[in-house]
Design a protein that fits this description.
The chain is mostly helical. It is 87% helix and 0% strand. It has helices at residues 2-39, 43-69, 81-106, 114-147, 150-184, 188-219. The two termini are 27 Å apart. 37% of the residues are buried.
C-alpha cells in the first residue's frame, strides 16, 4: 500500500511541478520574442505577446494551486513540504516577474537609443537561459527522487550551478546597463523607466537562482 501511495506522490506533485516548469520555460521564450517586437517598434505584436504571457501566467497559477491542494499527507513526501512549496513559489515568481516586466515595458513607447536597446536585449537573453534551465532541473530532481541514483543527484547539482552562474552574468549585465543609462539617457522619465525595467528583469534571474537554491537543499545529504 505504501509503495502505491508513494508512486501516487511521484505521479502528481512532481509531474505537475514539471508541467509548471515547462510553462515557465515557455514564458521565457515569449519574453525574448516580446522584447524583440518592442525594440523593433512592432507594438501590436508586442501587445499580443504580452496578452499571451498573461494567459500563460493565469494557467500556471491554476496549476500551482492544484499542486498545493494535492500534496500527500503524512510521511509520504521524500522532501520537506515547506522546501517543495518554497521551490514552487520561486519558480512561479519567475513567471510573475516576466509578466510584470512586459507590462512595465508597455508603459512607454519604443523609442530607445540603439545601443541601449541592444544591451537591453542582451540582458533579456541573459535571463532566459536560467529560466529555461528550470524545466531540466525539475525533471532531473524528479528522476532523483524516484530512483535515488547518485548520478541524477549530480545532474541536479550541476544544473543548480549553471543557473547560479547565469544569474551572476545577468547581474553584471544589469549593472553595466544601468551605468550606461545614467551616462547616455538625459531624460529623467525615460531613465527612470529603463532603470526600473532593468531591475524587474534582473529579479527574474534572481528568482530562478532562488529556485535552484531550494532544489539544492532538497537533494542535499
Amino acid at each position: 500500500m505504501r509503495g502505491s501511495l508513494v508512486q501516487l506522490f511521484y505521479k502528481t506533485p512532481f509531474e505537475n511541478l514539471l508541467k509548471h516548469a515547462e510553462k515557465v520555460k515557455l514564458c521565457a521564450q515569449m519574453l525574448l520574442e516580446a522584447a524583440e517586437y518592442y525594440i523593433n517598434g512592432e507594438v501590436e505584436k508586442f501587445d499580443e505577446m504580452t496578452e499571451k504571457v498573461a494567459l500563460l501566467e493565469s494557467s500556471a497559477d491554476q496549476l500551482k494551486r492544484n499542486i498545493r491542494n494535492h500534496l500527500p499527507r503524512g510521511l509520504l513526501m521524500p522532501v520537506e513540504k515547506f522546501q517543495f512549496l518554497e521551490y514552487l513559489r520561486e519558480q512561479d515568481k519567475v513567471l510573475d516577474k516576466v509578466e510584470e516586466a512586459l507590462y512595465w515595458l508597455s508603459y512607454r513607447p519604443p523609442d530607445l537609443p540603439k545601443e541601449i536597446a541592444e544591451d537591453l536585449l542582451d540582458l533579456v537573453k541573459g535571463v532566459v537561459a536560467p529560466i529555461e534551465k528550470l524545466a531540466q532541473l525539475t525533471e532531473e530532481a524528479w528522476n532523483y527522487f524516484r530512483n535515488g541514483r547518485e548520478r541524477d543527484r549530480i545532474l541536479v547539482k550541476k544544473s543548480v550551478r549553471d543557473i547560479s552562474q547565469w544569474e551572476n552574468e545577468a547581474d553584471l549585465l544589469e549593472r553595466e546597463l544601468i551605468k550606461r543609462i545614467f551616462q547616455e539617457v538625459p531624460e529623467p522619465l525615460k531613465a527612470f523607466h529603463l532603470i526600473k525595467l532593468i531591475g524587474i528583469i534582473g529579479q527574474i534571474a534572481d528568482h530562478a537562482q532562488n529556485a535552484g537554491d531550494r532544489m539544492r537543499a532538497m537533494v542535499a545529504k
